[in-house]
Design a protein that fits this description.
Distance between the termini: 30 Å
Number of helices: 4
CATH superfamily: Response regulator
Number of domains: 1
Strand order of the largest sheet: 2-1-3-6-7
CATH class: Alpha Beta
Length: 143
């Protein structure tokens, strides 16, 4: 059962996770775009625990665009707003390439997203570490 986040400053709530076979994520290169340093570190920790290789993290839209152009990643975990700039412009290319992606956002209402991106997997911040792990396992473990 998930509990609501109550202590200020906590971004993740750690809870007991059952053992997962993380070998399906071993070596997966996941592009991370996040402009809040603490959040980026915690995302890196989750991905490292899942045996992924973190690409980035990047904190500016221009950096994200350059990484997307360069390729060399298997999935993406992207904050929707990087220093005041929305990342929606890079999403069509990622979709065309078939890159599994997760959107993170401080906004939970899907109506705040352009219609063509409302059904993308996303997790609202502050997020639960267990929920992020589950979503990563579900999306990035696909061949």
């Amino acid at each position: 059962m998930q509990q609501s986040l109550t202590s200020g400053g906590d971004i993740f709530r750690r809870n007991g996770m059952g053992d997962h076979d993380m070998t399906s994520l071993a070596g997966k290169r996941i592009l991370v775009a996040e402009d809040e340093g603490l959040v980026a570190l915690l995302i890196e920790e989750v991905l490292n625990d899942l045996k992924c290789q973190v690409v980035g993290p990047v904190s500016r839209l221009a950096e994200l665009e350059a990484r997307v152009e360069a390729g060399q990643f298997d999935g993406a975990l992207l904050d929707v707003n990087l220093r005041g700039e929305h990342i929606f412009g890079v999403l069509p290319k990622l979709q065309r390439l078939g890159v599994p992606l997760i959107i993170t956002s401080g906004y939970d209402a899907k109506t705040l997203f352009p219609p063509e991106f409302r059904d993308l997997p996303r997790i609202a911040k502050p997020f639960d570490e267990a929920a992020l792990r589950q979503l990563c396992l579900k999306l990035f473990a696909k061949p």
